[in-house]
Amino acid sequence: MNALLEVSGVSVSFDGFRAINNLTFNINAAELRAIIGPNGAGKSTFMDIVTGKTRPDKGSVTFGEKSLSLLKMTEAQIARAGIGRKFQRPTVFEDQTVAENLTLALKAARGPWRVLVWRSTAADADRIDALATEVGLSDHLARKAGDLSHGQKQWLEIAMLLAQEPRLLLVDEPAAGMTLAERERTTEMLVNIAKTRAVVVVEHDMDFVRRLNCKVTVLHEGAVLAEGSLDHVTKNQTVIDVYLGRG
Amino acid sequence: MRPLLQPRHRSMLVFLAGLAIFTIGVTIAAQFGLVSTSFVKTLGKTLCLCLAALAMDLIWGYAGILSLGHMAFFALGGYMIGMWLMYARTEEIVIASLMNSGLPATPEEVQQGIATQIFGVVGASDLPAIWGFAHSLPLQLMLVLAVPGVLALVFGWLAFRSRVTGVYLSILTQAMTLALALYLFQNDSGLRGNNGLSGLQNIPGMDAVGQETISLWFFWASALALGVVYVLLHAIVAGKFGSVIRAIRDDEARVRFLGYSVESYKLFVFTLTAVITAFAGALYYPQAGIINPAELAPIASIYLAVWVAIGGRGRLYGAVIGAAVVSLLSSWFTGGRVPSIPLGFATINWVDWWQVLLGLTFVAVTLFAPKGIGGVFDRLTGVHTPDRKGAPLGPDDGSLQEREAQQ
Ligand SMILES: Nc1ncnc2c1ncn2[C@@H]1O[C@H](COP(=O)(O)OP(=O)(O)OP(=O)(O)O)[C@@H](O)[C@H]1O
Ligand SMILES: [Mg+2]
User: Fold this and answer.
1) Above 90 in pLDDT, residue B337?
2) Closest ligand to Cα A41
């Protein structure tokens, strides 16, 4: 079976510094994958490349059944093709209400003319309610996102990601700033989502990764160091040396 | 609740009511001779400036693009309507004078007469090609919107496509208006060089109607235009489109990752506001009577931004109030009727010192009251700013600042 996302032989340098070094990575259509690795390993940069924010110096990135090359597409086109992203810092539109944030993300036509004549239907309102309820924000729909707590902003961003109905979700450190109970909720949700979509999760918290119970890719100095089950990679001596051993 | 009576539409209804009362009041005052014709014109022109400020607020206050070139579109709109006004008016005069000479005039003679009349001052006697539509009001009205619209489309496409943002975009727009002004200053630009177009207050075919009536017509037209555009822009900013452009203002990278083509939205807003500004200019210059390339000076567009800032950006009524207050004060101070203040060692002559006062006000507003005059309304209606410990509402240059925001 063809993978949903195929990254092969990708390298990128910033001022001579190799942030990503000949990286190859595949994920299937309904798969959950965790990426771990030390700070500066290139995890966020990998997401930047897939979402079109950073252009690699070489290599190829293809997506979907038709193996669409993402390298020639803009960030917006990639997002419309079905790749959603949650950033490391929560990034929501702070001057807008929770409902407005969700409306922006809701799957719908994205062109200026179509947006100009867009009117909220009952179905849209229901969907927004459902999403807000799912992440525990249903009482906060009318509040400005800037007023929310750090954890609530994380939830809002996750809900926005779901609203887009992407085929591939890239989730950068979703559990940062969450309580233990919230982390468990997040795990549950991600596992659930991955039943129908591909989900890539970057996370430092080993307990969190363990609960995801999925294949793990260890990144180090911009390349894949090890790949396999969590137990498998944590037994790898190099992984212990560069990552696990630190703390 | 009826949809129009929702709280989010309240500011629009209050604004429309205020505008209607103002228009009726001025009309009655003019009927009873309480205000002069020239003051009615000043008020009508002020309404046009408010209209331009509305457009400026959409692009800067809502979309976060600090364009410092929009008065170029304003002047272009004025030039386009001015061409018809001057042509048609001159045509009347030429036909009348040829009539006096006895023989019926041929179309060629009329055409030639018009060309000499209009272009004599710059030493030319042929009608330039760009005057090809000047004989027809509908065609020229189309150009009022088309010429600035196409210019904005091309300029915006080039600028936004290369992702020019922030200060660089502002500088680029200043360069655009300056370049256009310098071009128009040339005698062979086809628009009479530094003489510009004049006599625009004389509406062709309306000789029998006095200026006191025409001034009221334009005043009404300006008020109507302001009202209609206000409703239109309110509808745009209150909907999802407004949500998208405010999101672009605060964090455009994030908007891209949601699948919106930020460049298309910027281009859309840039062009739409250019067309609105041009329309405002087309209503303004027949009331001003004269237009010349000095109207495109870079400073004019900076004033537009100052008005919006003083009124409070990101609120449509703020832009209108800012433009009205500042431009009316400006014409009061520079009108020479404000008594000078003798200080002993020097005298404050307001014609000269007004600019200084305006500059200081601008600095004071930016530093101490970023919500501008619009903030007064926030206070009256009990709207508070969020407590964000000084953090703006997004990472971008144009993003709303803490003290501009509403909770
Ligand atoms: N735009 C950039 N310009 C220069 N260097 C960059 C840029 N983006 C990333 N880097 C560098 O590339 C390396 C990889 O960064 P990246 O953010 O991908 O790491 P990460 O694995 O996400 O780390 P963390 O766990 O801290 O989030 C870092 O050394 C970083 O400094
Ligand atoms: Mg990172």
Assistant:
1) no
2) 1
